[in-house]
């Protein structure tokens, strides 16, 4: 397990009683903490029209985090490419790579990162852009290529820069695309684990080597709530479960304090839905979590664990990430 890469995902969630500035400051604190722990990277994700998520302007947040750290890779998990013109993303990430050379990742997703009405506002009624995702990934590759020098449309800055692309997904469609393009693949196991096993198999079986990558590289983003005891971890995890219940019932709430029992206890439909979303969460002390992660990594050929920790208490969240590093080394 000491060979498994370890990274973090943070959406800058706004907690109960907190404001946006506090959420962004906490993301900086998490980034600095995992940098000291020698995590490989920290990613932010693009979401829109979500009152309690502060990472909507993802490129700007990446710049802010990179400015407040010194060595850790910083990137998107991901940029929802159908919301943007590929040329604009090439210019933005070309600028980021110029400012922070060798530290910027560009993870790309095809989902809108929001509801359909907001997607229409973002895409100006052109909802067919998701179907253009494979071509737009190739467009980005062309803009970053040094061979694009004689094209009529070029990305400045961006052209000729080595900015690694990652395909993100929560279904098997993305697995086929990442494999065919020979790109690293990151799966959203932290909220959509249903097709995870199938996607891993498809990606590994269909991978075609490319100039970017000789062999498959598979990242799984998972929820991790580690504590000094499994009893404490289970208590802290109620904040995470209650947050997911809000997503399931479309009654989103800020991340709140732990509760003695989950707020949806005794409602079977919600219990089942939350358990399904959280089926790949690792919750407990080191003795419990280590064998679970070892089996998970080996069964699914995972090269990198990307952890996200929905823990209300800031210090306990940092401690969870420290324990994860300790467990896996």
UniProtKB/TrEMBL annotation:
Transmembrane segments: none
Gene3D superfamilies given in the database record: Luciferase-like domain
GO cellular component, one term: cytosol
Molecular function as annotated in GO: oxidoreductase activity, acting on paired donors, with incorporation or reduction of molecular oxygen
Luciferase-like domain segment(s): 15-266
Pfam families listed in its UniProt record: Bac_luciferase
InterPro entries: Bact_Lucif_Oxidored, CmoO-like, Luciferase-like_dom, Luciferase-like_sf
Similarity comment: To bacterial alkanal monooxygenase alpha and beta chains.
Name by which UniProt lists this protein: Luciferase-like monooxygenase
């Amino acid at each position: 397990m000491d060979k498994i890469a370890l990274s973090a995902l943070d959406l800058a969630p706004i907690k109960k009683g907190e404001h946006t500035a506090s959420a962004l400051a906490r993301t900086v604190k998490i980034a600095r903490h995992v940098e000291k722990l020698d995590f490989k990277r920290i990613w932010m994700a693009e979401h829109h029209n979500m009152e309690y998520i502060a990472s909507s302007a993802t490129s700007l947040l990446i710049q802010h985090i990179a400015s407040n750290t010194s060595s850790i890779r910083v990137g998107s998990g991901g940029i929802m490419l159908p919301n943007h013109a590929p040329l604009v993303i090439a210019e933005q990430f070309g600028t980021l790579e110029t400012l922070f050379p060798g530290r910027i990742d560009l993870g790309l997703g095809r989902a809108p990162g929001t509801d359909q009405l907001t997607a229409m506002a973002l895409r100006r009624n052109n909802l067919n852009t998701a179907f253009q995702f494979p071509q737009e990934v190739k467009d980005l590759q062309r803009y970053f290529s040094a061979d694009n020098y004689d094209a009529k449309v070029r990305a400045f800055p961006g052209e000729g820069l080595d900015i690694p692309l990652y395909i993100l997904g929560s279904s098997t469609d993305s697995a086929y695309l990442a494999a065919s393009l020979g790109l690293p693949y990151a799966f959203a196991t932290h909220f959509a684990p249903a097709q995870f096993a199938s996607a891993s198999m498809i990606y590994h079986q269909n991978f075609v080597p490319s100039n970017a990558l000789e062999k498959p590289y598979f990242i799984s983003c998972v929820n991790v709530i580690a504590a000094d005891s499994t009893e404490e971890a289970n208590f802290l995890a109620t904040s995470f479960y209650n947050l997911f219940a809000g997503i399931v019932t479309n009654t989103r709430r800020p991340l709140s304090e732990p509760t003695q029992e989950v707020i949806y206890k005794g409602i079977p439909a919600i219990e089942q839905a939350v358990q399904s979303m959280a089926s790949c969460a690792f919750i407990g002390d080191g003795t419990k979590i280590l064998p679970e992660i070892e089996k998970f990594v080996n069964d699914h050929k995972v090269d990198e664990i990307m952890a996200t920790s929905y823990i209300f208490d800031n210090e306990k969240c940092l401690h969870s990430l420290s324990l994860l590093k300790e467990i896996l080394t």
